[in-house]
Amino acid sequence: MPGAWLLADAKDPHRNGVLKTMTHILLRNRDIADIWQFDTYVANGGYDALKRAVNDLSPDEVIQIVSAANLRGRGGAGFPTGRKWSFIPKDAPVKYVTVNADESEPGTFKDRELLEKNPHQVIEGALIAAYAIQATAVYIYCRGEFWDLALALEERIEEARQANLAGEDILGSGWSCPVYVHLGAGAYICGEESALLNSVQGVLGQPRVRPPFPAQVGGGLYYAPTVVNNVETLANAPWIILNGADAYKAIGTPESPGPKIFCMSGHVERPGNYELPLGITFRELIYDQAGGIPNGKKLKGILPSGASGPVLRATEEVLDAPLTYESVAALGSTLGSASFILMDEDTDMVWAAAKMTHFFRHESCGKCTPCREGTYWLDTIYERILRGEGTARDLELLEKVPQQIMGLVLCALGDFACNPVLSTVRQFRDEYEQYIGLAEPVAAEA
Amino acid sequence: MLAEKHAERIEKIFAKYPDKRSGVMALLYLAQEEYGWLSEEVLREVAELCDIDPTQVRSIAGFYTMYSEKPKGKFWLQVCTDLPCALRGADEFFSGLCAYLGLGERGGTTEDGLFTVEPVMCLAACDKAPMLQCNFHYHENLDLEKVKMLVEQWRAEAGQGDGAVG
Question: What ipTM goes with this model?
Fold first, then answer.
């Protein structure tokens, strides 16, 4: 049974420091290599959950099960998925499910593996969501760079359609729901849900003013009520429908149940994706699973949520903390999409912050002045500091400019852009001071 | 003209959406595939197909990094130099590739028009750095020696007049 390992010590997410040999719930391709093929997927229980939902459960019952499982959005915000589905007005004549496969956060590469290696599970999950809200159609928004992946995905969708699992009159239920792939063209902002909807509509991919929210009339795709879910979130749905909410909640912790894919990159011995129960510790993830830091170096900085979340200093307290949405927030960062970028003791944190700032300057969509101008100035200040021309005034500005961005813009990108700046200035101030000549120089190099 | 040459593909694109405007991104890709890059004239052609203003098409073409409003080399190499890749040597990889092709620090297009090298933002391949995409196809787990071999392969392909690239 998939996931049986996870149930072994349900009461103790830490497993006393020992994680069982795993069978995957999400990355089933790790256990069954050719599960991307329709026949293999079906032979291993694939589409049984969709059949169960459509044949035996009402849309409301599906929402209830997913709500009871307390599945939380894996794209970054951690919003309860069942609640999101329940917001869709039942009487709306047109409704959509949009799958967010724009995966563009530096350090994130989990949705890509799911879509490449276990695509039918994502399609099945999307169709379960679509059934739950009685959607008119599903659009899977792939970032443009997933060009090859998107072409293959269209073939997988066609296989499902030919088996009457998507398209017209699904499983003879009278409910019809085609699944389409929409290809982006290179813009981080299109991972923001309202920008994503605009992008599908052929409008410039910039965020919308909310309310109305996507679930509301006037706020979604083509202004119809719309659910926007991340790829990994939806990949959880089939298992939940087949195994029930209680089995799902036995994995992880009560507030953050279920398995999570952790993306490990940067200074790490074994980079890649790791599917593990929420609630394991930083130490277990980084050292036991991913093999620790190369060349016997010490770990200095941890970005648990890619470039967009605050950096954490790798203290003993942090390393022993459990990886749940709540506990990472309590440490002053965010679990986000669990894209871990690790930086060893030799990493120049000013350089790292400059890299991330440059990213956000490039990806600011330009709609809101505070973000457009603010990220430009932050990037310019970093260039000056890295050239060795920074002053104490620049260090002050790095703390002041964010105050004129955060909370003053339409979407989260503004806050994201400020996180690497503020968290490094506050926690690694000495390195900034060395750059601007306020402290004695020591060797610090990327 | 796209409408005549690719009628079937255009029809398939429009069939996905409730309105024609939504076809603009797919049509820009199609146009770029057909003409190599998106000139003013091409943007107007796409605008006409989608029944929207050419200015709106131009703003979309300019907003995304995968559309090109200027001619690129036959092999368009985009190297990710964001933080996760940079922690694994992507900056040195990028400058090494540029130097090998006789380009400046920031990349550019080679004189023979074969290669365009540009830094690009995160491509969701951080665990396989350094990496690049060549005409939208990924090449991962690279180092300078490996990419030099790829460059020579591409050169050979171009020399044989083979249209298939990447």
Answer: 0.93
